[in-house]
Write a structure and sequence with these properties.
74% of the residues lie in helices and 0% in strands. The protein has 512 residues and is mostly helical. The protein has 21 helices and no strands.
Length: 512
């Protein structure tokens, strides 16, 4: 990120005013992280209300994630060119306005477009909220300030599904976006009025517009391909073939340009460090599997288990409880041992808990489903904190900012791609399982005949049996995907040991 002057223009904030500013910055980080998960449990409701399929409804999640990922590399340039405070306040107000547009969207197409705007404005909030906290707090108070920031980062993913489910069931799906509006706009205005005295000096820096353009082209083409592939019969469609060619050529051109550009928007040269490259493979696989399970769970609960969005949110939110407890313990242990051991243990524990979830039954109770989500939460900090230390500790000190930007970029893109893939594979597996079960079901006609009587004609009896088979087909598809994710977690855990031990200490919060 571009260098900023830390000298305040006027008297610096102290006491209660300083901490009030800190709460504002932490709150901005909270709403940005919240919107990564608040829509997860509402996808079935939104899809139904807007006349879209479940796989199309997932675009609501992927569009936000992709737009946010693309914005991450721009944050440093924007802060250097326009000032960190100005960029942050503008992004926060823009986030609020985009949220209002999302809440009023009349169709899925408009909602996806507005979510892209929301992602673009939300991208700078996490990184700059941390930057400004470190800028306004004196060194002795910085650990406490970063603790406040870290709490919002951990609590937001817990609150997202719970709050999203409750709001969706109580006030309608639009409320999950409208809840951001007053918070973001008011906080943005207050941040500008309060922190403008800390605005650093700006400078006109050269901008890699070609690199950004190529980045947008290949990522957009890939994501649209994944989102539309199922509905367009994949490579039988000329559109999908065209998107695949554009994505491949765009990616190749992007790689060549960024590796030869003097001031690239994404510094790919950091991949020359084996420790960084290996840890990024672990990060990408783990984040992909993690997002896949987080998206799959509420879809399964609402489509197959009869859960409302509220109760699906309660179960999904269980994963964050032990994460809050585990985070300070993990941070303390990391100062005394090889972070690779903690990283391996965390990802391996995610593999075990996800494997246990692959044995689900349609008759499971709330706690039988939720227990493995609850215990899996302890592994989250054991992954997020050490993977940052291992990755950033493998690069040269002057490359830390570039490596951190790439880490955030890959983390978000992995989640978006996995979300698209899991929704498609889940529906395809359910359809295939239904056909297989129907073909091999013993005594199917006898079952239909036994149900036929005065209270139920043969058509209704056949429908009842078909529903039972469909429910089991979805349950099998869910278990198959949980098992696949467990395998991915296991592979990611094994790859940890390819990474050399980091050569220098790194603040894990630098990844945000």
């Amino acid at each position: 990120m571009a260098s900023q002057s830390t000298k305040a223009r006027g008297a610096p904030l102290t006491g209660g005013a300083l901490w009030a500013a800190g709460v504002l910055l932490a709150l901005a980080n909270f709403v940005a992280v919240l919107d990564l998960s608040i829509a997860n449990v509402s996808v079935p409701n939104i899809s139904g209300a807007l006349g879209a399929s479940t796989s199309q409804g997932v675009w609501i999640i992927t569009s936000y994630a992709v737009a946010e990922a693309i914005t991450v590399p721009l944050t440093g340039w924007l802060a250097g060119r326009f000032g960190a405070v100005r960029t942050f306040a503008t992004a926060l107000i823009g986030f609020g306005l985009a949220s209002a547009l999302c809440g009023m969207a009349p169709s899925l197409g408009f909602l996806v477009a507005f979510r892209v705007i929301q992602g673009v404005t939300g991208g700078p909030l996490m990184a700059l909220s941390q930057t400004l906290l470190l800028q306004i707090f004196p060194p002795k108070q910085q650990p406490a300030a970063m603790g406040l920031w870290a709490v919002t980062t951990l609590v937001a993913p817990v609150c997202g599904p719970v709050l999203g489910g409750y709001l969706c069931d109580t006030f309608g799906w639009g409320s999950i976006f409208m809840v951001n509006v007053p918070v973001a706009i008011l906080a943005g205005v207050l941040v500008w009025r309060t922190l403008s005295r800390y605005e650093g000096e700006t400078k006109k820096a050269r901008f890699d517009s070609v690199g950004l353009g190529l980045l947008i082209v290949w990522i957009a083409a890939l994501q649209i391909l994944l989102d539309l592939g199922k509905d367009r019969d994949w490579f039988a469609s000329p559109l999908i073939v065209t998107l695949a060619v554009v994505a491949a050529l765009g990616f190749a051109a992007f790689m060549i340009w960024e590796l030869t550009e003097k001031n690239p928007i994404v510094n790919l040269r950091v991949f020359r460090h084996r420790g960084f490259s290996a840890s990024m493979v672990t990060l990408t696989l783990t984040m992909g599997a993690f997002f896949a399970t987080n998206v799959l769970t509420p879809l399964w609960l609402q489509s197959n288990m009869g859960y409302t969005a509220t109760w699906a949110g309660y179960i999904t939110g269980l994963i964050g409880i032990l994460a809050i407890v585990s985070a300070p313990i993990t941070a303390q242990v990391m100062t005394k041992t090889d972070p690779r051991r903690i990283l391996f243990a965390g990802v391996a524990w995610l593999a075990v808990t996800t494997f246990m979830r692959s044995h689900g039954l349609s008759q499971m109770t709330f706690w039988q489903i939720g227990v493995w989500l609850f215990v899996a939460g302890a592994a989250m900090p054991m992954f997020f904190l050490p993977v940052t230390t291992v990755a950033l500790g493998a690069v040269n000190p002057e490359e830390t900012a570039d490596a951190s930007g790439l880490l955030n970029f890959l983390r978000t893109i992995a989640g978006a791609v996995a979300t698209s893939i899991v929704s498609t594979v889940w529906e395809n597996n359910a359809t295939r399982n239904h056909a297989d079960l129907a073909a091999t079901m013993p005594g199917a006609q006898t079952t239909v005949d036994s149900l036929t009587g005065p209270a139920m004609n043969s058509a209704a009896a056949l429908g009842t049996v078909n529903d039972l088979v469909g429910g089991q087909a979805v349950m099998l598809a869910t278990n198959q995907l949980f098992l696949a994710c467990a395998v991915v977690f296991a592979i990611a855990a094994a790859l940890v040991w390819i990474t050399p031990r980091p050569t220098r200490a790194v603040d894990a919060s630098a990844a945000h």
